[in-house]
Amino acid sequence: MSKEKRSHDGGNNNNNNDRNKKRKFKVSSGFLDPGTSGIYATCARRKERQAAQELGLLFEEKLEEIYKDELAELDAADDNTEEGDNNDDKKKGEQELSIEDQIKQELSELKDHDKKTTLTGEKKKDPLQFIDLDCECVIFCKTRKPIVPEEFLHKIIESLADPTNMEKRTRYVQKLTPITYSCSGSMDQLIKLAQRVLAPHFHNADNPTEYKFAVEVSRRNFNSIPKMDIIKQVVIEATKGGELGHKVDLKNYDKLILIECFKNNIGMSVVDGDYSKKYRKYNVQQIYEAKFNDNHEEDANEEVRT
């Protein structure tokens, strides 16, 4: 009897282990289209929605602050286009449409207006749009013109790291990663993506500076290309097969090439050396904790002096 109990318990333990393994490797149902630009964010587990709300408020504020002039130009261009279209429609309506047809046209215009709005109430052409990746601890904010992800995020991090700014803007958000462009998960597309993203930084004929650089790859639910194959190919593209004087330096780099692989999508961007040295890999939680500790030490030193 005791042997049967032990074997029965052992079977239950094996079943529990199998269930835990299944839970551990959860496959996400969300996806990103090739050509997408934006910002990845990691966050506390099961706090994805709250983290998106926090970032949404922060990004909206900084969007108006950083791209105020560009947004005004885009709004003006849209207004001019809509005004021209409306005038043309009015002229056609006066000349051709009956009252019944005019009513139908107005209803059609209302439907078109509704189609331009997403389920969250955001217009499809809004510069910021959060996409549900259905992935634990990860969210993504898609960006459009006039936002340049690396520039936008660097200015936000710079502001958050300001030692005079002790306001904690986020509770659940952790690390932020810009994505200049993205492609589908194949080697051919990766090469094209690397050529596009790396050219302004490494292949600028007007500024032929030789950089020390490194490559950092993060993969989630991605197995299309081995990690080392991605790194080797990106190094080849950055140096143009060794023709340029750029050198790989994993510790004291001037430029860091960030690569985020999610399902069948590969995103890429380039950040400066202050990414890890000064701004703690854009981890807003660590940035705030460092500021708080520094401020606490200064207060303690002042008390000792007095």
Report on the structure:
With 306 residues, the protein is an alpha+beta fold. Helix content is 51%, strand content 19%. The protein folds into two domains: 38-72 and 126-293, VC0802-like (2-Layer Sandwich); 73-115. Helix 6 (187-202) packs across helix 7 (227-239). Residues 2-9, 19-26 and 115-124 have low confidence and may be disordered.
Please outline what is shown here.
This is THUMP domain-containing protein. By secondary structure, the chain is of the alpha+beta class.
Distance between the termini: 76 Å
Q: How big is the Rg?
A: 26 Å
Q: Count the DSSP helices.
A: 9
The side-by-side strand order for the widest beta sheet comes to 5-9-8-6-7
Structural class per helix/strand content? alpha+beta
Looking at the structure, what is the overall shape? globular
Q: Total number of β-strand segments?
A: 9
- Quote the average pLDDT: 83
What proportion strand? 15-25%
* CATH architectural arrangement of the largest domain: 2-Layer Sandwich
